[in-house]
Write a structure and sequence with these properties.
Elements (H helix, E strand, L loop, with lengths): L18 H5 L2 H4 L7 E6 L2 E13 L28 E6 L3 E8 L6 E10 L2 H11 L14 H7 L18 E4 L9 E4 L16 E4 L13 E2 L2
Antiparallel strand pairs: 1-2, 1-6, 2-5, 2-8, 3-4, 4-5, 7-8, 7-9
Helix pairs in contact: 3-4
Length: 224
């Protein structure tokens, strides 16, 4: 049983994100999501994590996006919904990835959440329970990648389409740290060589120095 002091979060919770994060483009909102809190409600309790790495996928023109060329399929339909919707997809037939849809209806913008950090030891314990044995024994391997964090938070396609801006759902976003106070850097996105000239766009953002970041780029540019 955890001591009550261990269950106190580093800042008040239960506050919604500014609506402008959901209505902005993915490129505008991706760095603003850093420091915010991703909340997963399970039968074992709530799990809260700080978002430490994001990737922006900018809609119809972005060759790295599932919706490039306004491709509208059963898989991508969620991306065409209004900002605040959760987009979950499966890669390699085994790993789920979770995204925050932004902008307005019919403008397919999405932000991939690439890495999160549990806020307390209680959160880490629940994530460990769901994730199983962590390769290498490194604590950050719990959730330092999009597939890893989805396993640790029990995120799968059953959550596709849920509203992340509703604080009473199974998965949602809360106000956390002020991103303008964080050391944020930007670098090219990961594993999208098919995106041609869009593969090198510096549309990945992360908190510099955070151990949960999936890939550190020595050439990353500081933006804050």
């Amino acid at each position: 049983m955890l001591d009550k002091k261990e269950q106190i979060y580093p800042y008040p919770y239960g506050q919604p994100l500014p609506p402008s994060i959901y209505t902005g483009t993915a490129l505008e909102s991706a760095p603003r999501l850093l420091g915010q809190t991703l909340v997963r409600c399970t039968e074992d309790g709530e799990i809260r994590c700080k978002i430490v790495e994001t990737e922006s996928y900018g809609g119809k023109e972005d060759k790295g996006s599932h919706a490039y060329g306004a491709r509208r399929t059963a898989r991508t339909e969620t991306m065409f919904q209004a900002g605040g919707t959760c987009y979950v997809y499966l890669i390699y037939g085994m790993y789920h990835c979770v995204n925050v849809v932004t902008s307005y209806e019919n403008d397919p913008q999405a932000i991939l959440i690439r890495a999160v950090e549990p806020l307390t030891s209680r959160d880490a314990e629940l994530m460990q329970l769901y994730r199983g044995k962590i390769p290498g024994g490194k604590p950050a391997n719990l959730s330092n990648g999009p597939g890893k964090l989805c396993r640790a938070l029990r995120i799968d396609k059953s959550l596709n389409g849920c509203q992340l801006n509703h604080l009473d759902g199974p998965l949602y976003l809360e106000l956390g740290e002020n991103s303008s106070n964080l050391p944020i850097v930007q670098a090219p996105r990961i594993n999208i060589p098919y995106a041609e000239e869009y593969a090198s766009k510096p549309w990945r953002f992360y908190i510099e120095g955070n151990p949960y970041v999936s890939v550190v780029d020595k050439k990353a540019l500081t933006i804050k």
